[in-house]
Amino acid sequence: MALEIEEHPVESLSSGPKLCVKNFVWSEHEWPLINHDDFADGDDIPTISLEGNLSGKPCQDYDKVCQVMVTACEKWGFFKLVDHGVAIETVENVKVQLNELFDLPMDQKLKGARSTSLPLGYCASNPEYGQNLPWAEILQLLQSPQQVVAFARKVFGDQHQPFSNAMVKYMQALDKLGMKIFEMLAHGMGLPDDFFTKNFEEKEATMIRVNRYPPCPLPEKCLGVGSHSDPHTLTILLQDDVGGLQVLKSDNQWIGIRPVPNSFVINIGDTLEVTPLFFIPKQLIYTFEYWNVNLLSTLQAWTNGRLRSVVHRAVVNKEKHRLSVAYFLSPATSAIIDCPPQLIESSTNLRKYVSFTWGEFRKELLTQKRVVGKTALNRYLISP
User: Fold this and answer.
1) What is the predicted pLDDT for the residue at 14?
2) Are residues 225 and 135 in contact, defined by beta-carbon separation less than 8 angstroms?
3) What's residue 295's pLDDT?
4) Which pTM value belongs to this model?
5) Is 295 helix (H, G, I), strand (E, B) or coil?
6) Strand partners, 264
7) 80: number of CA atoms within 13 Å, CB side?
8) Residue 140: what pLDDT?
9) How large is the C-alpha radius of gyration of the chain?
10) pLDDT, mean of residues 242-260
11) pLDDT band of 358, cuts 50, 70, 90
12) 207 near 272, Cβ under 8 Å?
């Protein structure tokens, strides 16, 4: 029966040559062993509330909340955020607009297709890589109102305003939230509140990536996104109520992250963001090899390994579409990645890295024939 299913055509993810289910079957060692809606009671990432800490004078437990946030990033690299201050109308509107986009006929969506030289825009999976294809439609745009409008005009013509306005308003709200999270992480580690945020005034590499995962007839062998750790500094993820995000724990066991209404999932991102996606060779953007590199994150380098970047994936299901909206915050190319002395003094470890800039690291990555982040990062290791 499974072999018959593998021969079924996949119209929703075929933007060129017609693909079959077998084109989306992953390597056997990647097949998920738990379903999209398997959530273990008592074994989930922490939930943190920002109630009373978003404007004006912080509430009395501000220091405690900051410490809890740091602890979550030390142990899990993930947490859920509620009472986050982003208006529910802003969130629901962007979800409606994105679902309407993905519901359009393929030929209309392809008017906003990414180019061969710039992986920004719409794509249906990634067929040119031949294997381990993501079971997902993908939209990827920079945090740029001009680029959002340009994309929307291609797809919607003169009727682009509802989509454009919803996206721009949403990204602006998430950028503000991201700065608050950075301030609280810095505060919780005893650093100046602007220690991270001062490096994020430019938005040249901050971006949004939207995945919509159609119902899949063979979810036990396919993945929406394979095992990876995000190539950015910080991710703010909006997911719907379907479920599918799974995180790899330190004991190498996968757990499902239960969706919570009106919440975001926050996670620490990878050093590979030093190379914004539009600088990475096209043939490596969506390969399993690229995304599965388990690297130290920027915040790990900034904190001498105190905060963690954790591997996660997206599984699919037979019955429902799932929408996932990831906002990736990235510093300016000129930002200097250097752990502050007070964190080294409070750590049992010696300084692990010399300081470096995003630009230097990007150049080091691009001199390699294959994107292998640890090899590039080793250049900055301090010998014991």
Assistant:
1) 92
2) no
3) 36
4) 0.88
5) coil
6) 81
7) 16
8) 94
9) 20
10) 93
11) low
12) no
Alpha helices by DSSP H, listed for the chain, are: 2-6, 62-75, 88-102, 106-109, 145-156, 161-188, 288-291, 298-302, 341-345, 358-366, 373-377
Active site residue 379: no
Phi, psi for 363 (deg, rounded to 5) = -60, -40
Segment 152-178, tens digit of pLDDT: 999 999 999 999 999 999 999 999 999
Instruction: From residue 153, give the alpha-carbon distance in Å to each of 149, 162, 169.
Output: 6, 11, 17
Residue 8 has what pLDDT?
Answer: 94
Please list, in sequence order, all residues whose beta carbon lies within 8 angstroms of the beta carbon of residue 318, skipping any fewer than 6 positions away.
215, 216, 217, 219
DSSP state of 222: -
DSSP-derived pairing of the beta strands 225-228 and 207-213: unpaired
Spot the catalytic one: 209, 322, 362, 379. 322
Buried b (16+ CB within 10 A) or exposed e, 154-181: bbbeeebeebbbbbbbbbebbbebbbbb
Q: Which residue carries 């060692």 as its tokens?
A: 29
Percent of the chain with pLDDT over 70: 81
- What's residue 368's pLDDT? 44
Tokens read off for 221: 């062998």
**What distance in Å separates the CA atoms of residue 370 and residue 226, rounded to the nearest whole number?**
19
Structure tokens at 366: 């691009």
Give the torsion sign (CA, 107, 159, 149, 136): negative
pLDDT, one tens digit per residue, over 230-249 is 767 899 999 999 999 999 99
